Amino acid sequence: MGDNAHVDKAVSVGNYLNLYLGQNQGVRLGESVVVSRKAHSRMPEKKIKGQIKILTNRDAGKTYLDFVEENQVVHIDVYHKPGDVYAEDVARGIYQAVYKYFLERDPQLKYAEDELYKMVAVYYHKIYIVTNQGKGLLYDLLQDKVSPVVAGEEGYDHVHILARLNCDEYYLVYVIAEAVEEVILASEVKLARVRNIVHGLQKQKEDSFAGYIKLPWKRFKGQKAASLPEKENVNQLIVKLAEKFGGVEEIEEFMESYSTNIFKRKGIDQQKKKWGDVEHYIEQLEELGILKDTPAGKILTRKGQELKEYIINHKCELETEIRRSIRKMPAGGSGRFNKLGSCDFKSHRIEYINRNKTVNNPQNWTGDLAVPESIVQAKKNSFFRGDSDFTIRKEDLHYYKKRTYVPVNVCILLDSSGSMAGEKRQAACYLAQHLLLSGKEKVAVVTFQERSSRVVVPFTRKESELKKGLATINPAGLTPMAHGIMKALELIKESRIKNPLLVLITDGVPNVPLWTLDAKADTLRAASFIAKEDIRLVCIGVASNRSFLEKVAEKGEGILYFVDDLNRDNLINIVRHEKKEMLKGRQMA
């Protein structure tokens, strides 16, 4: 009975963790254990004693183990009073506890020791342990291979566990935490009480891909990531660069800036205008041995030239990897932006025939007749009815089923004035790629800058057409917002698409008029035409321009989102949220 209770409790805790960790929250187990998928920070004792902060913008795997993907690691901290706790003892305690748990869950395993051993061995390289007396993977610590702890590292006043567990394995968190507490107490060290936990953000440095990619020609001291095959590491590096520069072709363009051909080189100011702050990436590429300093400036090394050739020769494969990366939803949610206003826009459904599914003899059905299925059904029924001749009756008829869906076609209206250069431009381009790759509907891009506007990408489902158009966006000059709105309306009307969603992205206010000498008045007049055309408007801008953008959203009978930063995560989360709202408000055309 006691064994079953232990198993049931572990399962119950696993379900509890699945709920909270799935919402990017941390939890306290008992009085001394904190669990999350994020990094933890102890609040200053002078402020609040015994309070732990869950850093919601710092993934545990990326922070501590230099993982590329998020949400791969469960972070378990068991706090204790001053005293020595040995990592080898913790490893043995965890091993024995997991072994015992699997045996309790399935007593028949005592007759299959090899199978039981394999079940436990799966976690040898998935559990990383740090104490104030050493650190290492579970497997290494069981072999008494202990690495020294660096001053200031995790584990000085707690046992720090990083376990690669999926949501179906969260029951092991209870098993591990209980085992660690027992080891601490057996070491004659008292457990420390965690009074409460809070959630918050911590400003973090830009990712250092030089710290987790082990290229075959470069070694780094103290690197924690496991060595990967050369091809996988190079692909990882290129995907990381694509997140910054937008795609394979733009990576090539960036690398041309460091070729020995001076006519192809692009100055640092030109690079910043298109891609934003590139200095961090240049430093990382130098550390990886891909760029080097010369009297004539930075150029590609021999390995840099090889990387460039690799990109050219494996373009198709790399673009597939990049597309997979772009499709992913970013971390974060609606709390990262503020929403004002509401919209009564009603979406229209499209009904179509599903040729893959049929229904037999429905009541009041007027769909297309499925002839092959009807004949097969009639043949069967004729046999069972004992008909002397082959006959088709009403009950034999099959019809193709009907399906409906709500297409949401997005037109991005992008401010391409000088202030949108760099990171903001890249974020908007990334949004367009994400929408096209993650949905079934069409995407268009219209820009406004200097004294006019233009259709950069007409409504399309072709990725090549989108990328070609996005590459031509070079922010500069003034902000003719009224021109942009009218150009977008013209495109939407000519395209005759269903459920248009117009997304206006800007960091400023208009300063170029269209009809009068007042740029703001002209913009508000242009916005008033949006509501008349049955178009849903979403305006995304920075908080400093909230007052004017509220008027734009009001005139267009749309919604305003204002953010502190026009980054890609904010843009994607907002647009995807609005697409869901349009699906909720659907009605028949």
From TrEMBL:
PROSITE patterns referenced in this protein's UniProt entry, alphabetically: VWFA (PS50234)
Domain VWFA, first and last residues per copy: 409-578
PANTHER family: CHELATASE-RELATED, MG-PROTOPORPHYRIN IX CHELATASE
Protein name per UniProt: Magnesium chelatase subunit D
Organism in which the protein naturally occurs: Thermosyntropha lipolytica DSM 11003
